[in-house]
Amino acid sequence: MLSRLEQALARFEARQQCFSAAVEVTQSMIDTLLGSKERVSTTTRLPKGVDSLTLKKIITAFNEHKETAFTAQQMGDLVGVSRSTARRYLEYMLEAGQVRADQSYGSIGRPERCYKICQ
């Protein structure tokens, strides 16, 4: 019983973080956070360059690795698409409120954006 409460509180905290990080709240963000995360509606118009099948693969990868934050390169390698394609999908998901982003600073080079699914 306590673990269910902990899971519910963790989901609430993740949702709060996604809402507070968002510039604006969209309907797709609300739909995602309130339970339709795993399916991509065929009636939803996706922007040019975003295909529902590839989007489903990325969502599935996130759901299989819920605690992992991915760079665009890592997600691209996992799903089998290029880094730039993965970044396009990850940025779309960030805008929709499905993922949150953070900067990862290594010891050398530019910082990388890491994306994590909102639970």
Please supply descriptive tags for the structure shown above.
mainly alpha; 51% helix; 119 residues; two-stranded antiparallel sheet
What is the C-alpha radius of gyration, as a whole number of Å?
14 Å
How far is it from the N-terminal to the C-terminal residue, by CA? 19 Å
Describe the strand arrangement of the main beta sheet, using strand numbers.
1-2
Low-confidence stretches: 37-42
User: Element order, helices and strands?
Assistant: HHHHHEE
What level of helicity do the residues show?
40-55%
- The third-level CATH topology is Arc Repressor Mutant, subunit A
What count of structural domains? 1
Organism: Pseudoalteromonas translucida (strain TAC 125)
GO molecular function, one term: phosphorelay response regulator activity
Pfam family, one: HTH_64
Domain Transcriptional regulatory protein DpiA-like helix-turn-helix: 54-116
Q: What does this entry show, briefly?
A:
GO terms for molecular function: phosphorelay response regulator activity. This is Transcriptional regulator sensing dicarboxylates. By secondary structure, the chain is mostly helical.
What would your notes on this structure say?
With 119 residues, the protein is mainly α. The protein is built from five helices and two strands. A two-stranded antiparallel ribbon has the order 1-2. Strand 1 (99-104) and strand 2 (112-117) form a beta hairpin. Helix 4 crosses helix 5 (83-95). The chain is globular.
Topology:
Layout: H1 2-21, H2 27-33, H3 52-64, H4 72-79, H5 83-95, E1 99-104, E2 112-117
Antiparallel strand pairs: 1-2
Protein name: Transcriptional regulator sensing dicarboxylates
InterPro entries: 2C-system_Tx_regulators (IPR051271), DpiA-like_HTH (IPR048714), WH-like_DNA-bd_sf (IPR036388), WH_DNA-bd_sf (IPR036390)
GO molecular function: phosphorelay response regulator activity
